[in-house]
């Protein structure tokens, strides 16, 4: 296994995860389309719809990667997008997709400590990024801090499957198909083996939703997409005691 591929259980695997995404950046989009059989863009569109009105305000695209969600947010009428990712190579690979003078700021930072002001975002979206973040509760707490009260967080993610049928479907695809396809397109099958393993090592959707409640989200709900591999989780930043009391 390559030195750059993070191993499970490492104290803070973040530096290795970053190095791995730096390496995958040039081939990331192509590999994504092949691995998801073209379904990934439809999942992203549904995630943006779940942002509601907040999606047309000042939005943070967290773990933005090569900016697919950022582009869709612009198309959806977002006033501004701050695209945050700790891999500058991923952000730079996405930059050429942006229209000239687009209201987009690319910010190289860790999801656990965003250089963003309190209550400065109307919505936050995180696509397929948070399961790579160690101590994911810290990133969720950061989202609660950066969102204005009443703002929405939408997470599009592969959670650890809960039912036997989902475990069989997802498990065999992730273990056998994903590293082969990802490896063919990118040349880094170990990295795609890690990405598949990171799904097994991640939380279930239920436990993730509980984590959102613990850091101050209300109206938390989640649902599986079709086919039943990716899921959407959505929560509203606690509007504050005065509003809650009404
Ligand atoms: C699988 S990609 C998803 C990119 C994009 N959101 C999409 O929908 O294709 C995951 C991204 O999360 C970023 N990432 C992982 N851990 C991170 C962290 N701790 N802080 C910030 N970004 C992180 C990686 O650099 C990578 O670009």
Radius of gyration: 17 Å
Average the pLDDT over all residues and give the rounded result. 89
Number of individual domains: 1
The parts where pLDDT drops under 50 for at least 5 residues are 242-246
Q: Give the N-terminus to C-terminus distance in angstroms.
A: 56 Å
- Tell me the strand order in the biggest sheet: 3-2-1-4-5-7-6
Q: What ligands are attached or bound here?
A: S-adenosylmethionine
- Classify the helix fraction into a percent range: 40-55%
Count of distinct strands: 7
CATH hierarchy class name: Alpha Beta
Largest beta-sheet characterization: 7 strands, mixed
And the CATH topology?
Rossmann fold
What percent of residues are in strands?
A: 15-25%
Describe the structure concisely.
The chain has 246 residues and is of the alpha/beta class. It contains ten helices and seven strands. The site of S-adenosylmethionine has 20 residues, from helix 1 and helix 4.
